[in-house]
Amino acid sequence: MAEVLGPVFAMKLGSYKVLIISSQEVAKECYTIHDKVIDRIDLTASKILGYDGSFLTFSPCGPYWKGMRKIATSELFSTATIDKFKGSREREVDMAFKDLYMRWEGGAKKGVVLVDMKRALQDLVANMSLMMIAGKRYFGAAPNCEAGEARRYGKLIQDYFDYFGLYLLSDVIPSLGWLEWKIKRDMKRTAKELDEVVESWVEEHKKRRDECEKHYLDLLIEIFKNREIPGTTHGAHTTTKAICLVRPPS
């Protein structure tokens, strides 16, 4: 299309007008000089599940996103901070391999042991993230809470990230949002239940801040304690809950 229409042309996707740029020089100018026109689409999942756009990954470009990105790169996800949680990651890897070994040992008499490695690796990554964030383990064979609680919380967290991966028609054509009432209802229910879980994490960490082992939640609480957050009216408490749902680098 660029060969026919040129390096810059517009087209419509649903009710949105989209600018297509195939020239490197023009693209550079758009991302540096005229970058104010570039912003993220206001996703339904981000609004319902991400504390009204406070979820860092999908928040609109603006004062809030710029301020939180600066905090994330310099304090939350810096090399020094990630190294602090190296022990948590190593323990989760050890536990995952011990679990695989025990499965093999238990089924050695049969000669063949079938293992869903995709599920095992997904559980490992999820547990590594949760352990660094809040000291929780909900997936796999050895959760650090009651089995029923682990299943419920694990499903909530999985549903949360699955919803962010959905393509909703209303994100492109807002006027058709009424057709998706059922999935929006389910999103709101998941958001409410998960908020109760995250709220319990925050309160738990506030009560035991003097303990030696620290997690990302402790760091977030300390960072936002006496700091004004630009571009948002939600306050430090809600921002803490929204940011702690961002998976830290493993």
UniProtKB/TrEMBL annotation:
Gene3D superfamilies: Cytochrome P450. It holds the Pfam family p450. Its cofactor is heme. Keywords: Heme, Iron, Metal-binding, Monooxygenase, Oxidoreductase. One of its GO terms (molecular function) is iron ion binding. InterPro entries: Cyt_P450, Cyt_P450_sf, Plant_Cytochrome_P450_Monoox. Belongs to the cytochrome P450 family. This is Cytochrome P450. It comes from Brassica carinata.
